[in-house]
Each structure stands twice: as structure tokens, then as C-alpha cells.
Design a protein that fits this description.
Blueprint: H1 2-23, H2 30-49, H3 60-67, H4 72-76, H5 102-110, H6 114-119, H7 124-132, H8 137-154
Protein name: Cytochrome c domain-containing protein
Keywords: Heme, Iron, Metal-binding
GO molecular function: electron transfer activity; heme binding; metal ion binding
């Protein structure tokens, strides 16, 4: 039984590390990866709804949120590749939870405020992501401000 647990944990760590490396989550590809995923999501939603509109358009709210800086830090640091922020109208990946209320809930879930969590995450997935690409202090502060605004708008 003990070996089974150890094998499971080792497989879990290898799978997430391999996925992270396979997806190439470095900053040099961040600018090209995000628009493609947004286009793919837009295409899928348009096809499902049966709309014949241009598939590369973003919604005005999403464009405005990113352009005004609310989502700029989240997009620049690849947060939106796994997470969405519905309260800011930022569509993102579905791998991670929606971050609309992260500012107020991270401390209860992980035992530390969101800024400390982003510096030293306590979840296995986020610790793998952050350890491979630690956030500079200025970027972390921008993300915290965006999450604070998202939490306020979600109330």
C-alpha cells in the first residue's frame, strides 16, 4: 500500500512537470501562445452557437479589460492560460479555477494571503509553475491588484 501511494505521487509530479515542460510555459512564447488560445476558444464558441461571425474578434469588454491593465498582468504572466477571471470578463483556460474571488479566498484555502501565495505557493500545481518561473515583485503586485479589483467587481 505504501509503495502504491509513493508511485502515485511520483507519477503525479512527473505528469505535471512533463505537461509544464511540454506546453513550453516560458515568457518568450507568452505573446504568441495567448492569442492563439483566445482565437481557438472564440472559434469553438462561435461554432457551438451556430454563428457566422468573424472568429478572431474578442468581446469589447474583454479587450477593454486587458487594454486598461486590469488583465494585462494576468495575461503577460500566463495566468490566463489556465485561469479565467469572469468578474473582469477575461476568458482563459479551464484547467485552473476562476480567479474572480481569489483575492478573498486564497488565505482560507492555502493559509496565506494571495501575495505570499504567489511568492511561495502551497498547492502542488502552482508551486511547480512558480518554481519554474518566479514572479518579480512588481509583476506580483500588479497581479494582486488585478485580483483585488476582480474580487471587488464580483461582489
Amino acid at each position: 500500500m505504501k509503495w502504491n501511494i509513493l508511485i502515485f505521487i511520483a507519477g503525479f509530479v512527473v505528469a505535471f512537470a512533463g505537461g509544464y515542460l511540454f506546453m513550453g510555459m516560458d515568457n518568450s512564447t507568452a505573446a504568441t501562445d495567448q492569442p492563439e488560445s483566445s482565437v481557438n476558444e472564440t472559434e469553438t464558441k462561435s461554432e457551438e452557437a451556430g454563428e457566422n461571425e468573424a472568429k478572431e474578434e474578442e468581446t469589447p469588454d474583454e479587450t477593454e479589460a486587458v487594454a486598461t491593465g486590469e488583465g494585462e498582468a494576468l495575461q503577460a504572466n500566463n495566468c490566463l492560460s489556465c485561469h479565467a477571471v469572469e468578474s473582469l470578463d477575461l476568458q482563459g483556460g479551464t484547467t485552473g479555477p476562476d480567479l474572480s474571488d481569489a483575492y478573498s479566498t486564497v488565505e482560507n484555502k492555502h493559509g496565506k494571503p494571495v501575495e505570499e501565495f504567489l511568492q511561495e505557493p502551497t498547492s502542488a500545481v502552482m508551486s511547480t509553475v512558480i518554481s519554474g518561473n518566479p514572479l518579480p515583485d512588481e509583476e506580483r503586485k500588479k497581479i494582486v491588484e488585478a485580483l483585488k479589483k476582480a474580487s471587488e467587481q464580483g461582489e
